[in-house]
Amino acid sequence: MADSTTTAAPPTVEAHGAKIPAIGLGTWRAGMDVVAEAVEAALKCGYRHIDTAIAYANEEGVGEGLRSGGVPRDEIFVTTKIPPDQIGAGALERAAEGSLKRLKLDQVDLLLIHWPNPSIPLKESIRALCAAKREGLTRHIGVSNFPVALLDEAVHRADEPIVTNQCEYHPRLDQTMLIDSCRRHGIAFTSYAPLGRTQILDDPVVTAIASRLQRTPAQVILRWHIQQPMVVAIPKSQSPARIKENFGVFDFELPPEDMAALSALARPDARLVNPSWAPRWD
Fold it and tell me: Disulfide-capable partner of 110 in 17, 79, 233, 249 (CB 3.0 to 4.6 Å)?
């Protein structure tokens, strides 16, 4: 397969002043013993977007990888997320301060509410998120796992711009309604689990496209993501070889018929992340 990895700065998705690199490294379930090496490997092969969360319990390791990656801090876009039990007034700001201490950063580039919490008024959570930005804890703010109605309300309540909504998305999960809502608000859509947790890599449609284009199935799917307007993808990997492979998606394009064929893989039972505290999905 073609090795198209480059150390040139990746393309970005722009939303309300934020320039979010189109491919980032996800670190969900990357333990402290491996995440530093994964982040370092990603930075050295060209990534400039690293995504973590308090719930991942690996922010210290992510920070270590950021320092050992050899890339100036102002060239890296760092995202972390506040868990739903800490998104109340005061609690959110304290949680963000804790993240900065663990990461050993003065501020992150993007701070997200990880999940909505129906027991804490959204007005309060959004006010606290905006306060975190004004206090300099983060350059930008956003949300994660917000369906259309909650996203609309969050935008309405925010007095600082929301720049992204991070949600599950892959060819088997149709997110058309939510992505359209993001675009109406000028918000980027960040895809987590963009490879469907590898469950779709051996789909015949994917493998046929990959074979014809001399790319890997993962590269084909990630290209499908970033070729859509305002979409960012954050594939997770701990393997330096796979991390490098996932970044090699910027020097080819999928023709319209391949984009359509991949989108046609969507099915109603394809959601992989649906915990008990999840909101009602669109």
Answer: 79
Q: Report pTM.
A: 0.96
Counting residues of the chain whose pLDDT is more than 70, the rounded percentage is 97
Paired sense of beta strands 188-192 and 162-168, if any: parallel
Sign of CA dihedral 140, 146, 152, 154: negative
**HEC string of the chain?**
CCCCCCCCCCCEEEECCEEEECECEECCCCCHHHHHHHHHHHHHCCCCEEECCHHHCCHHHHHHHHHHCCCCHHHCEEEEEECHHHCCCCHHHHHHHHHHHHHCCCCEEEEEECCCCCCCCHHHHHHHHHHHHHCCCEEEEEEECCCHHHHHHHHHHCCCCEEEEEEECECCECCHHHHHHHHHCCCEEEEECCCHHHCCCCCHHHHHHHHHHCCCHHHHHHHHHHCCCCEEECCECCCHHHHHHHHCCCCCCCCHHHHHHHHCCCCCCCCCCCCCCCCCCC
Residue that is written with structure tokens 């469950």 in the block? 199
Q: How far is CA 168 from the centre of its chain?
A: 9
Residue 56 a catalytic site member: yes
Structural domains in the chain plus CATH codes: 12-263 (3.20.20.100)
What are 42's two structure tokens? 């990603």
Q: How far is 47 from 237, CA to CA, in rounded Å?
A: 13
The active-site residue, picked from 47, 56, 169, 192, is 56
Strand 18-21 relative to strand 12-15, pairing: antiparallel
